[in-house]
Amino acid sequence: MKLSQTLLGIDFKNPTVLASGIWGITAASWRRAAKCGVGAVTTKSLWLHEHKGHRNPTIISTDHWTLNAVGVPDAGVEKAREEIGSFNKNKPVPLIANIIAESVENYAKTAERILELKPDLLEVNISCPNIEDEFGRPFACSVGDASAVTKAVKAVSGKTPVFIKLSPNVDSIAAIAIACAKAGADGFTVINTAGPGMAIDLKSRMPILANKVGGISGPAIKPLAVRCIADVYKATEGKLPIIGTGGVFTGEDAIELMLAGATLIGIGTALADRGENVFKLVCDEMADWGKKNGVKDMKELIGGMHRELQKKS
Ligand SMILES: Cc1cc2nc3c(=O)[nH]c(=O)nc-3n(C[C@H](O)[C@H](O)[C@H](O)COP(=O)(O)O)c2cc1C
């Protein structure tokens, strides 16, 4: 099964994408992911100025889910300039720069500064669920806020495609997606972490995370990701590409997200569980599945569930 594709003028040798926040912000870690077979890498969320994250403990994992309240720490644009600059010198795979800010104005400013570094694609994180104490409800939770951020970033983004990273923690992800599409979004990343959730230590009777709550990722959120991708794909009539992200561990998980409407597949939590070869493993499993099921090009799978539903209606 063919796994490569050209999307918005960018060549992806396979659909796997290193999800934001998982492997630091260094050129060395992106190069390592590329060596391990990833199709594209995403930076962790980049702020205009240094932003301190939350106190430890910030992560707890089980076989079924991970809770994280890292709190989006980042050294700011100057550090990003060094790392992205170094990666660009001999870039093995496309680079997606993920940005975050506390105001619409600063989303535009951060985008402008980061775009000077010529990423292949800009991903706008409006959906982190574990910094509400600092900044209030994420922009992804309101049609007006999500649309305003999209418009502001699109006003400065020129030819670089802008993907908006959406939250599952909303009444209607379809309504948010439609608003962002009208404001000019070129695509979406669906989803950021869910919740937030909480885990309590039985002995101390205290929350395990210092921040008390954290975003939920890993296998437990895959059905949520599949539903959200399907909603966004349907709402935008399959016209805008989606980086489907959430609980992907295997090739079959990736195929399921594609049937819901994903064009590329973000992988985060699975990196800790299956190890750094997870990208190659997922691609090999996808290719095996394609062989067994007579699918020659992975593109046939994108949005496949919607076409089956239509046939039956
Ligand atoms: C430890 C950790 C840190 C993360 N940091 C970011 C981040 O900085 N920016 C962002 O947009 N998403 C961040 N995420 C969310 C992931 O990119 C992804 O959307 C989410 O974890 C769901 O995918 P998964 O189940 O494959 O991990 C983070 C997730 C984890 C587990």
Write the layout of secondary structure elements.
Elements: E1 5-7, E2 10-12, E3 16-18, H1 27-35, E4 40-42, E5 59-61, E6 66-68, H2 77-88, E7 95-99, H3 104-115, E8 121-125, H4 132-135, H5 143-154, E9 162-166, H6 173-182, E10 187-190, E11 194-197, E12 200-201, E13 206-207, E14 214-217, H7 222-235, E15 242-245, H8 251-260, E16 264-267, H9 270-274, H10 278-293, H11 304-312
Parallel strand pairs: 3-4, 3-16, 4-7, 7-8, 8-9, 9-10, 10-15, 15-16
Antiparallel strand pairs: 1-2, 5-6, 6-14, 11-14, 12-13
Helix pairs in contact: 1-2, 3-5, 5-6, 6-7, 7-8, 8-10
Can you tell me about this structure?
The protein is of the alpha/beta class and 313 residues long. It has one domain: TIM Barrel. Helix content is 36%, strand content 18%. It contains 11 helices and 16 strands. It has helices at 27-35, 77-88, 104-115, 132-135, 143-154, 173-182, 222-235, 251-260, 270-274, 278-293, 304-312, and strands at residues 5-7, 10-12, 16-18, 40-42, 59-61, 66-68, 95-99, 121-125, 162-166, 187-190, 194-197, 200-201, 206-207, 214-217, 242-245, 264-267. Strands 3-4-7-8-9-10-15-16 form an 8-stranded parallel β-barrel, surrounded by 7 helices. Strands 5-6-14-11 form a 4-stranded antiparallel β-sheet, with no helix packed on it. A two-stranded antiparallel ribbon has the order 1-2. Helix 1 (27-35) links the parallel strand 3 and strand 4 (40-42). Helix 5 runs parallel beside helix 6 and helix 8 (251-260) crosses helix 10. It is globular. The two termini are 29 Å apart. Residues 19-22, 44-45, 59, 66, 68, 70, 72, 98, 125, 165, 192-193, 217-218, 221, 245-248, 266-270 line the site of flavin mononucleotide.
